[in-house]
Amino acid sequence: MQDAITNIVNRYDVKGSYLDKFAVDQLSSYFKTGLLRIKVIQLINSKASFIVKEASAQLYSEQPELLRPGGNSYTTRRYAACLRDLEYYLRYASYAIIAGDTNVLNERVLDGLRDTYNSLSVPIAPTVRGIQLLKEVILQELSNENIEAEFFIVEPFSYMCRALSEQNISR
Ligand code: CYC
User: Which Pfam family, any one of them, does this sequence belong to (predicted)?
Assistant: First the structure.
């Protein structure tokens, strides 16, 4: 797993150079957002089950066919798997927010996931919508607490949506 600091240090180590102004600017913007990152992960941590519940309720009200016979969330086993997956996305997004790096998402969540989903017929588009809804619920909660939304808060969610939506062009 990488974070904003190891990412920069590794790049400079490869070149064998000291951290220049560019690196220092990137590092200071990471440190400047540090307290806000902590606030955001505390909010996610304290409201995790609410966030998942809201996002899934919204998903199933938009796409009720998922819950009907033939839908991928039909049966309590699959419904539970779906809530669990949303919980995974939320938890790993919180790790990426505090790390300031999306690498953890590739390593622990996304690698191979499309293939797993395809082999189990888990539909990608509603999953992507579920991740967007997690993000929207968090943005609403942040605004309720007068915390201004910043790019780094939404980025891990957008990153997972992009990665899941991407077509595999090698096949
Ligand atoms: C299944 N989701 C799975 C499976 C994996 C993941 C590996 C297959 C194994 C299992 O059932 O547990 C996902 N596992 C992960 C992820 C990680 C991991 C992300 C990283 C930590 O270790 N179905 C829907 C919704 C969507 C959904 C749109 C929820 C948003 O209709 C999800 N995922 C879903 C469902 C299954 C599943 C229903 C069970 C499919 C089946 O067995 O038929």
Answer: Phycobilisome
